[in-house]
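Duplicate of #3305? Posting structure anyway:
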């Protein structure tokens, strides 16, 4: 680990960003999913400023045993008949907030830089739909995409998963669930600032969680209660992928933000993969807060999408 476990010495741009977030906070505001979603929806336009153009952008509805799941498809230019690798993307938001629309810019950038079809899945959210409903949707969507990828230029033989925060949890858990069920695994898994252990007992949670501007202990505990209200579930590997046997886990790209309460969730996951002899890239971003890759204010400070795209191209080339 390279984290300093301190916010001292942050870059001026990061300090400004955190001050902006702090100015918009209402101390003691009640934890309410609807109110939080409304605030998130209002931020979506800002988060998606500067999204690159793509050749294909369309909404689809994926049939699942629980009903149709909405998804957004993004694809770059391709030659006639060319099939591109496909990435199923799951957004973050503590399993409670955010939608596929919130991460449009990020998904378009991945589509362009990795030359891949990206399918952003609007899984059902807690608390209306606690575990395992969001994971059920992600697994059902992955199975459907394996069968229907060609309909929008995707290669059914080259499919990966990815996500940030709670979406990183779902991306990893999708691979673990497919493994449990004896099905083909994703070619790769991308996990950015992923929530991999719902016990919330790591050192980084202890240092940064009490007063984090984005995901303090209070909001994380609320989201956890929405998604997995029974504490007995927190040790379930499909709820907390860090608890899983990772000896057969696909190649993984993990992004850890240095002042994120979830820093250890990501570094420990990477260390466990290395100990199991798996293919893993760990990219650490000192001084960056949780989900930094979504915020335009912090985007110029990192090469995170380039790192993700480079990893995906490497794995996809090996599979081809």
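Output from current build:
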């Amino acid at each position: 680990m390279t984290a300093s476990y301190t916010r001292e010495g942050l870059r001026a741009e990061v300090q400004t960003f955190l001050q902006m977030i702090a100015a918009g906070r209402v101390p003691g505001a009640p934890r309410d999913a609807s109110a939080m979603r409304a605030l998130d929806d209002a931020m979506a336009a800002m988060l998606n400023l500067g999204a690159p153009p793509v050749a294909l952008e369309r909404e689809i509805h994926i049939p699942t045993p629980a009903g149709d799941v909405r998804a957004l498809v993004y694809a770059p230019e391709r030659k006639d008949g060319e099939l591109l690798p496909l990435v199923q993307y799951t957004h973050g938001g503590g399993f409670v907030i955010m939608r596929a629309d919130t991460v449009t810019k990020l998904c378009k950038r991945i589509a362009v830089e990795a030359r891949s079809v990206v399918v952003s899945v609007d899984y059902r959210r807690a608390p209306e739909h606690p575990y395992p409903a969001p994971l059920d949707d992600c697994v059902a969507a992955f199975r459907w995409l394996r069968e229907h990828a060609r309909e929008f230029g995707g290669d059914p033989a080259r499919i990966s998963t990815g996500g940030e925060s709670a979406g990183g949890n779902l991306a990893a858990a999708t691979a673990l669930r497919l493994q449990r069920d004896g099905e083909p695994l994703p070619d790769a898994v991308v996990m950015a600032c992923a929530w991999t252990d719902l016990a919330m007992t790591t050192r980084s949670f202890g240092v940064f969680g009490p007063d984090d501007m984005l995901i303090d202990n209070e909001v994380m505990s609320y989201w956890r209660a929405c998604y997995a209200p029974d504490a007995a579930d927190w040790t379930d590997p499909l709820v907390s992928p860090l608890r899983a046997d990772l000896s057969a886990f696909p190649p993984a790209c993990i992004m850890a933000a240095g002042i994120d309460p979830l820093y250890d969730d990501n570094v420990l996951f990477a260390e466990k993969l290395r100990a199991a002899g798996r293919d893993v890239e760990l990219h650490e971003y000192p001084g960056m807060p949780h989900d930094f890759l979504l915020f335009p204010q912090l985007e110029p400070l990192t090469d995170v999408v380039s790192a993700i795209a480079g990893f995906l191209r490497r794995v996809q080339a090996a599979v081809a």
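Confirmed duplicate; merging threads. Strands lie at 56-62, 69-75, 84-90, 117-121, 154-164, 189-192, 252-257, 280-285. The radius of gyration is 18 Å.
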